[in-house]
Amino acid sequence: MNKPADMLFALICAALASVAATGPALAQEFPSRPVRIVVPFTPAGAVDILGRIVAERLAAQWKQGVVVENRPGAGTVIGTDAVAKSAPDGYTLLLAVTAHSVNATLVEKLPFDPVKDFAPVVLAATAPNILVAHPSVPAETVRELIAFAKANPGKMNVGSPGKGTTMHLAAEMFKTAAGLEFTIIHYKGTQPSLNALLAGEVNFLFDAGVSVPMVSAGRLKALAVTSATRAAILPERPTMVESGLPGFEVISWYGFLAPAGTPRRVVATLNRDINGVLKDPDARARIAKIGLEPAGSTPEAFDQFIRDQIASWGKVIASSGVKAE
Question: Does the pTM of the predicted model rise above 0.70?
Answer without folding.
Answer: yes
